[in-house]
Design goal:
223 residues; Lysozyme-like; 2 domains; 5-stranded mixed sheet; 7 helices; globular; disordered N terminus; binds zinc ion
Length: 223
C-alpha cells in the first residue's frame, strides 16, 4: 500500500511538474507578445516618418528664376546645436555677410529645429550664391547643405538627419542633373583647410545610397 501510494504520489508529482512547465511556457508567450508588438510599432513609426518626408518640390520652390547649379557641397555646423535662424544671425551680425545664412539648406538634429527637418534659406529662395566655402567660384555654382552637429569632435548625424540629406541630395542632383562626382564634402574644396563635415559624416554611405536609388529608378523605367 505504501508502495502504491508512493507511485501515485510520484505520478502526481510528474503531472504537477508538467502543469507547472505548461503554465510557465504559456505565461512566457503572453509576456513575449507585447514585446514583439512594440517592436513592430516602432518599425512602423520609423517607416511612417519616412513617408512623412516633406514634398521636396514644394519645399524647394523658388521665388525667382533658377541658377545653373553644378555642385552640391555637404557641411556640418561644427556646433552641437543650432538651426537656420541662429546661423543666419551669426553670419549676418557677427560675420557681416549681407545675405546672412551662408548655406542654402540646413538639416536639423532636434536641438533648435526638428530632428531631420530641412530648413530652406533665403539664398535658395532668391537663388543667391552661397558663402559656404572660401572659394567664390565654387560658391557661385554649388548648393550648400549644412547638417546641425559636430561630426569631427562629436558623433555622427542622427538617422533622421541622414535620411533627410539622402532625400534632399537625391532630389537636387536629379533636378539639376548634377553627377555623383560633383557631390562633395566641404573638405574636398581646395582653398582653405577644413575638416568639414567631419570624419564621422558617413559620406561613402551617402554616395552608396544615392547610387542605389538611381539604379532602382532606372530599373523601374526599363520595366
Ligand atoms: Zn563646411
Amino acid at each position: 500500500m505504501y508502495f502504491l501510494n508512493k507511485n501515485i504520489n510520484k505520478h502526481e508529482g510528474i503531472i504537477r511538474c508538467l502543469s507547472l512547465t505548461m503554465i510557465v511556457i504559456a505565461s512566457g508567450l503572453f509576456i513575449s507578445i507585447p514585446f514583439f508588438k512594440s517592436a513592430k510599432v516602432e518599425k512602423l513609426n520609423r517607416h511612417e516618418s519616412t513617408l512623412c518626408m516633406p514634398n521636396l518640390d514644394q519645399l524647394c520652390r523658388l521665388d525667382v528664376k533658377e541658377r545653373p547649379w553644378e555642385y552640391i557641397v555637404i557641411h556640418h555646423s561644427a556646433t552641437a546645436k543650432g538651426n537656420a535662424a541662429r546661423f543666419d544671425y551669426y553670419h549676418k551680425k557677427m560675420k557681416g555677410w549681407e545675405y546672412g545664412l551662408a548655406y542654402h539648406f540646413v538639416v536639423g538634429n532636434g536641438s533648435f529645429s526638428g530632428d531631420g527637418e530641412i530648413e530652406v534659406g533665403n539664398r535658395w529662395k532668391q537663388q543667391i550664391h552661397g558663402a559656404h566655402t572660401a572659394n567664390m567660384n565654387c560658391n557661385r555654382v554649388a548648393i550648400g547643405i549644412c547638417l546641425v552637429g559636430d561630426f569631427e569632435n562629436g558623433g555622427a548625424p542622427t538617422e533622421n538627419q541622414f535620411e533627410s540629406v539622402v532625400s534632399l541630395v537625391q532630389y537636387l542632383s536629379r533636378k539639376y542633373n548634377i553627377p555623383s562626382s560633383n557631390i562633395l564634402e566641404h573638405k574636398d574644396i581646395h582653398q582653405k583647410a577644413t575638416a568639414c563635415p567631419g570624419k564621422n559624416f558617413p559620406f561613402a554611405e551617402l554616395k552608396t545610397r544615392l547610387l542605389q536609388i538611381a539604379s532602382k529608378s532606372s530599373n523601374h523605367k526599363e520595366l
